[in-house]
Amino acid sequence: MRELREQVLEANLEVVRRGLVLYTFGNVSGISRTDGLVVIKPSGVPYERMKADDLVITDLDGRQVWGELRPSSDLATHLHLYRSFSEIGGVVHTHSEFATSWAQARREIPPLGTTHADYFYGPVPVTRKLTTAEIEGNYVHATGVAIVECFGNRDPLEAPAALVADHGPFCWGRSPDEAVHNAVVLESIARMATYTVALRPDTSGVSQALMDRHYFRKHGKTATYGQS
Ligand SMILES: O=C(CO)[C@@H](O)[C@H](O)COP(=O)(O)O
Can 82 be counted among the known catalytic residues? Predict the structure, then answer.
């Protein structure tokens, strides 16, 4: 777990270097599937002071098995994603400005160009609004449930991000560093989508043929989106 703690620390520091978070916003975690254990950022600790030993380890039910500090307040969302999406190895939550703006507008990000299609096969989905009962109840877990729901039967690695309505983006990948990479790309395509829609509100976006061409040549795999 020492190596995973170092990877998760590095991934947390990378979201700061990439300008995706301010102060103590955001969090990154990673999972060891063989041990069934998750390493996550501690809650509220400034990134510039964070050390690998400050990271917290829990099991998939959220029981803390290592660390003195409290785990990130978003832990239950990360855990639900790990339980639901068995292929993922890292989760990132940020409040990056353009992706968060689409989340606050409660709009999915449509595939408007090949930059999007290289990384996200189809739109980046947005969740439904949480109910008052969910917000007053197990809010953080309900956030994870809403993310998984908005994926339906799409492959979560074909569009490794979701926008949580009124909140912000969650991204994931096969590892913590791949999840951060996807969060950086998401912010870039969210920025371009904002400008594109401002310049041409009636844009129709990329054709299915262009999206297929770009996504498949980059990933070399078979589509599931749009086939079910
Ligand atoms: O979503 C939020 C707040 O809305 C989080 O990103 C927090 O800002 C980070 O909390 P910790 O991970 O430090 O508990």
Answer: no
